[in-house]
Amino acid sequence: MNNVSLYNKISALPENLKKEVLDFVEFLQTKNKKGPGKKPRTFGSLKGKIKMAEDFDDPMEDFKDYM
Length: 67
Known about the structure:
2 helices; mainly alpha; 67 residues; 42% helix
């Protein structure tokens, strides 16, 4: 389909349908502007950035009554 035939078909539409065509074209343009999806995470990319406390596995003070 070339631009001239597309223009002729749109020109033949009533005004309310032309508005819908415009809305749809704007939707397609917005959808197309979105860049590529997120880059996949690389294994080990956070190595050395997360630290755990030395007492992580020790019982918590709040739970001593239940032990």
